[in-house]
Write a structure and sequence with these properties.
The chain is mainly α. It has 5 helices and 2 strands. It folds into 2 domains: 42 residues; 50 residues, no CATH class. 41% of the residues lie in helices and 8% in strands. Strand 1 and strand 2 form a beta hairpin.
Length: 104
Protein backbone atom coordinates (compact mmCIF):
# COMPACT_ATOMS: atom_id res chain seq x y z
CA UNK A 1 0.00 0.00 0.00
CA UNK A 2 1.50 3.39 -0.97
CA UNK A 3 2.33 5.88 1.75
CA UNK A 4 0.43 9.17 1.86
CA UNK A 5 2.63 12.13 2.75
CA UNK A 6 1.02 15.31 4.06
CA UNK A 7 1.85 18.67 2.45
CA UNK A 8 3.48 19.73 5.72
CA UNK A 9 5.70 16.63 5.72
CA UNK A 10 6.71 17.27 2.10
CA UNK A 11 7.43 20.96 2.73
CA UNK A 12 9.49 20.14 5.82
CA UNK A 13 11.66 17.67 3.92
CA UNK A 14 12.03 19.85 0.80
CA UNK A 15 13.13 22.79 2.99
CA UNK A 16 15.49 20.56 4.99
CA UNK A 17 16.98 19.10 1.80
CA UNK A 18 17.53 22.57 0.29
CA UNK A 19 19.22 23.73 3.49
CA UNK A 20 21.47 20.67 3.61
CA UNK A 21 24.69 20.15 1.68
CA UNK A 22 23.41 16.82 0.38
CA UNK A 23 22.26 15.96 -3.09
CA UNK A 24 18.75 14.51 -3.50
CA UNK A 25 19.87 10.87 -3.40
CA UNK A 26 21.98 11.37 -0.26
CA UNK A 27 19.18 13.21 1.53
CA UNK A 28 16.58 10.56 0.64
CA UNK A 29 18.84 7.74 1.81
CA UNK A 30 19.54 9.52 5.11
CA UNK A 31 15.81 10.05 5.73
CA UNK A 32 14.49 6.72 4.40
CA UNK A 33 12.41 8.42 1.68
CA UNK A 34 12.06 6.92 -1.80
CA UNK A 35 13.98 9.18 -4.19
CA UNK A 36 11.51 8.59 -7.02
CA UNK A 37 8.70 9.85 -4.80
CA UNK A 38 10.70 12.74 -3.36
CA UNK A 39 11.77 14.15 -6.74
CA UNK A 40 8.23 15.45 -7.39
CA UNK A 41 7.82 17.19 -4.04
CA UNK A 42 9.63 20.48 -4.83
CA UNK A 43 7.33 21.19 -7.79
CA UNK A 44 4.26 20.18 -5.76
CA UNK A 45 5.27 22.54 -2.96
CA UNK A 46 5.91 25.38 -5.44
CA UNK A 47 2.48 24.87 -7.03
CA UNK A 48 0.65 25.03 -3.74
CA UNK A 49 2.66 27.95 -2.32
CA UNK A 50 4.27 30.17 -4.94
CA UNK A 51 6.33 32.07 -2.37
CA UNK A 52 7.94 28.95 -0.91
CA UNK A 53 11.67 29.05 -1.16
CA UNK A 54 11.82 32.77 -1.84
CA UNK A 55 13.80 34.84 0.60
CA UNK A 56 11.77 37.07 2.88
CA UNK A 57 14.31 39.85 2.41
CA UNK A 58 15.68 40.55 -1.03
CA UNK A 59 19.08 42.15 -1.55
CA UNK A 60 19.01 45.78 -2.65
CA UNK A 61 21.72 47.51 -4.65
CA UNK A 62 21.71 51.29 -4.72
CA UNK A 63 23.75 52.76 -7.54
CA UNK A 64 24.81 56.38 -7.34
CA UNK A 65 24.44 58.39 -10.50
CA UNK A 66 27.06 60.94 -11.50
CA UNK A 67 24.32 63.34 -12.62
CA UNK A 68 21.97 64.93 -10.09
CA UNK A 69 18.58 63.25 -10.02
CA UNK A 70 15.43 65.33 -9.95
CA UNK A 71 12.68 64.17 -7.62
CA UNK A 72 10.38 63.85 -10.61
CA UNK A 73 12.59 61.32 -12.41
CA UNK A 74 11.02 57.83 -12.39
CA UNK A 75 12.44 55.12 -10.14
CA UNK A 76 12.91 51.62 -11.56
CA UNK A 77 12.36 48.67 -9.18
CA UNK A 78 13.80 45.38 -10.47
CA UNK A 79 11.96 42.28 -9.20
CA UNK A 80 12.87 38.59 -9.23
CA UNK A 81 11.95 36.83 -12.45
CA UNK A 82 12.89 39.82 -14.60
CA UNK A 83 9.88 42.01 -13.76
CA UNK A 84 10.38 45.76 -13.50
CA UNK A 85 8.20 48.49 -12.02
CA UNK A 86 8.68 52.15 -12.89
CA UNK A 87 7.11 54.75 -10.63
CA UNK A 88 7.57 58.22 -9.21
CA UNK A 89 9.51 58.45 -5.92
CA UNK A 90 6.35 59.52 -4.10
CA UNK A 91 4.67 56.25 -5.19
CA UNK A 92 7.36 53.92 -3.78
CA UNK A 93 5.50 53.33 -0.52
CA UNK A 94 2.36 52.22 -2.37
CA UNK A 95 4.39 50.04 -4.74
CA UNK A 96 6.17 48.27 -1.87
CA UNK A 97 2.89 47.73 0.00
CA UNK A 98 1.33 46.21 -3.12
CA UNK A 99 4.35 43.95 -3.64
CA UNK A 100 4.29 42.83 -0.01
CA UNK A 101 0.72 41.55 -0.35
CA UNK A 102 0.93 40.24 -3.93
CA UNK A 103 0.45 36.50 -4.39
CA UNK A 104 2.28 36.01 -7.68
Amino acid sequence: MPKHYTPEFKKHHVDAWRASDLNRRQYCESQGINEGTFKHWPSQIKTKNPSAGLPSVLPVHIARSSAPVALTDPVMVYLPGGCRVACQPAQLGDVFRALKYAEA
